[in-house]
Design a protein that fits this description.
about 110 residues, mainly beta, four-stranded antiparallel beta sheet, two-stranded antiparallel ribbon, 1 helix, about 10% helix
Amino acid sequence: MTEELLEITPSPGPFFRFADETAWLTAARTAGFMTTVTDEEDNETEQLQAYTHSHAIDVVGIITVGGEWDEDGTETVAPTTLDGFHVNYVGELPDSWGALEVKPENPYRVFA
C-alpha cells in the first residue's frame, strides 16, 4: 500500500486587531477560549486555551516598529506603536471576528 503525502503550504493569517487588550480578552471569553484554573492553594486564575484540536491562537499584543538605540542600549529614537492589540488565529472563525480581520502587507509574526 502506498501512502500519499499531502503537501500543505502554510498560509499566513488570518490576523486580527482588537481595540486594546481588554477588548481582546472580552472577545476571547465570549468565544469560549478562556478557562478558570485552580492551583493547589485554591487560587483561581483565568487562562487562555491557546492551542486545542480545533484552534490555535498566537497573541502578538502591541506591535512597535522602528526605533533606534545606541551601543549601550539607550533609546535614541522612539519606536512607533501601531494601533490595536494583535492576535493571529487559525480555526473556525468566532462570531463577530470577521470585522476585526486585518491584512498586513508584511506581517509582524505568522504561524509557520
